[in-house]
Prior knowledge:
The protein is mainly α and about 120 residues long. α3 runs antiparallel to α5. The mean pLDDT is about 80.
Amino acid sequence: MGRKYYCDYCDKRLPSGSNHRKSHNRGSQHINNKLLYYLRFQDPVEILINERLKTSCIKWKQSNSCLFGNNCKFSHRSNYELFQLIEQAKQNLNNQNNFDVHRWIQRKLSNESILPESLVS
């Protein structure tokens, strides 16, 4: 008996063996969980661009539920949520513009002898 395989996305333990792992990785629940995991790290600007290209989901507006969930090709976000995304995108862009590489490197590496001459200001 080998060790059991643990899927981080699904929080499940599977029997050892590549056949079990491959069939699990092809399952719709695993694929959806993996998609949700990576969507958490998506940049707000990218989310905003994707949401602006979509039209509103009629089912979501009527019943606040949609059979397709995250796989729906229509947007499930309200105008307020879109406004919040715009504000997050603005804030991220401002934070990126104020980022100083030299200061970050010096904080990470306190010993200046390690730094190459091109990075020392």
